[in-house]
Amino acid sequence: MTAPDNGVHITSFGYGHDAPPAAHLTVDLRVHFRDPHVNPALRHLTAHDPAVRDAVLSTPGIPHLIAALAETVAAYRAGPTPAPITVAIGCAGGRHRAATVATALADRLHGMDIPATVAHRDLHRPVITR
């Protein structure tokens, strides 16, 4: 999927399913941020479920990361050559952290009057057995 003219396209994905998509910015959430997958009550849910979103967005560092990513996207857009920007956000399976952060980033960008689209590449895929 392409970004809107001079807009942003964000893709969430799971490293455990396939290689990261091509992007200007790729963010790997696997090591530094708590994984809802470890909680059996959340494991089979997705970012569509409020309990998963709450767990991810209350993780220390995540709100700051989302704000910093929005500012980074704004910096790209401030450059002298207008062009679409692609952002890829990954976690282990693409069902919890990546999808939640991608959606929250798009919401933040919309609040900054920056057009953004989101695609969740692996949200529909089965839970990765670890």
Account of the 3D structure:
By secondary structure, the chain is α/β, with parallel strands linked by helices. The protein has one domain (8-120). It has helices at residues 50-57, 62-78, 97-111; strands at 8-14, 25-28, 85-91, 116-120. A 4-stranded parallel beta sheet has the order 2-3-1-4, covered by helices on one side. It is globular. The protein starts with 7 loop residues before the first strand and ends in a 10-residue tail after the last strand. The relative contact order is 0.33.
> Runs with pLDDT <50, length 5+?
none
Number of domains: 1
Number of helices: 3
Describe the strand arrangement of the main beta sheet, using strand numbers: 2-3-1-4
Topology at a glance:
Elements lengths: L7 E7 L10 E4 L21 H8 L4 H17 L6 E7 L5 H15 L4 E5 L10
Helix pairs in contact: 2-3
Q: Which characteristics define this entry?
A:
130 residues; 3 helices; alpha/beta; RapZ_C
Give a short summary of the structure.
With 130 residues, the chain is of the alpha/beta class. The chain is 31% helix and 18% strand. It has one domain.
